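$ run holo --ligand "flavin-adenine dinucleotide" --emit tokens
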Amino acid sequence: MLGPVILAASRSGVTRRVLTTAPLTRPVVSRFIAGETIGATLPVVKDMTDRGLDVTLDVLGEDVTDRADALRARDAYLRLIEALAPLGLEMRAEVSVKLSAFGQTLSGGHDLALSHATEVAEAAGRIGSTLTLDMEDHTTTDSTLAVHAALRTRFPSTGAAVQAYLFRSEDDCRALARAGSRVRLVKGAYKEPPAVAHQDKAEVDKAYVRCLKILMAGEAYPMVGSHDPRIVCVAQDLAQRAGRGPDGYEFQMLYGIRPDEQARLAAQGHRMRIYTAYGTDWYGYFMRRLAERPANLAFFLRSMVTRG
Ligand SMILES: Cc1cc2nc3c(=O)[nH]c(=O)nc-3n(C[C@H](O)[C@H](O)[C@H](O)COP(=O)(O)OP(=O)(O)OC[C@H]3O[C@@H](n4cnc5c(N)ncnc54)[C@H](O)[C@@H]3O)c2cc1C
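-- output --
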């Protein structure tokens, strides 16, 4: 019940101001954020890849309000890709993009976001890597899937996230379950109205399994984005039944969440990719992590009190 309250509170300007300016917030935020700069993040990437983990890198930032910021977001990704090149990681280090950071919700934003994403896809392709489109709130789903389809005509390995909590997602999974398609299935992290999304956690979990069945039985490359131990077991079982080996799908988890499980799955020979966010614009990302697990809020408040 607390999750939606935290997501609603996160929209308040006061909450944003208090949290982003309190010096005590930083140490807690750093549990989920790999660094504030590329320079600070690359050693973290190196450490993870040395330990057999793959990564997808997210430059923090979303919902830009003008074209100049959208351009800055694109440039940040281009600089990231340039910095990744010498590591030679190719597909072991891809990038994750929120199209709202590329101006998707501005007037004429669909084309703008497509144009910026195309440049990022070109740059990623040059270093043997690719990108995956994150999925944001439901008002952007059609546009994001249209950008994904357009990108795939030139860059077939472009991935897209699908949020199991949306009623539409089983149909989206069916449409995406085609050869060469990379689909990251997640439960969904935004506050959505009952008209478009399951509200009950048990219903979301069931919807996730239905979507996963479609993806595993189809021809796409499923990326299982979940920390849920039951989902991990179900995915392994469905993959086995579908005759998929370790190269036929992958697990994905967020940086800082269940690191022991990440290491365990990688040690078992599974492809385990860590969604690694970095940058200074961490507010929206951090608030979604608090909302997913109210225990994180307790941890956060406790450390504010003890450090204070
Ligand atoms: C790689 C990746 C990419 C994602 N991309 C998107 C996206 O594009 N769009 C989108 O809407 N959502 C995205 N998400 C977030 C996702 O929608 C869920 O909100 C999030 O993963 C929590 O759901 P869960 O499947 O882990 O299961 P839950 O049932 O929420 O959690 C299962 C268990 O995982 C652990 N856990 C989960 N969340 C946390 C947390 N924040 N802190 C500490 N422990 C936690 C706990 O042990 C919990 O009991 C992404 C998630 C991942 C892993």
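-- notes --
The chain has a mean pLDDT of 93.
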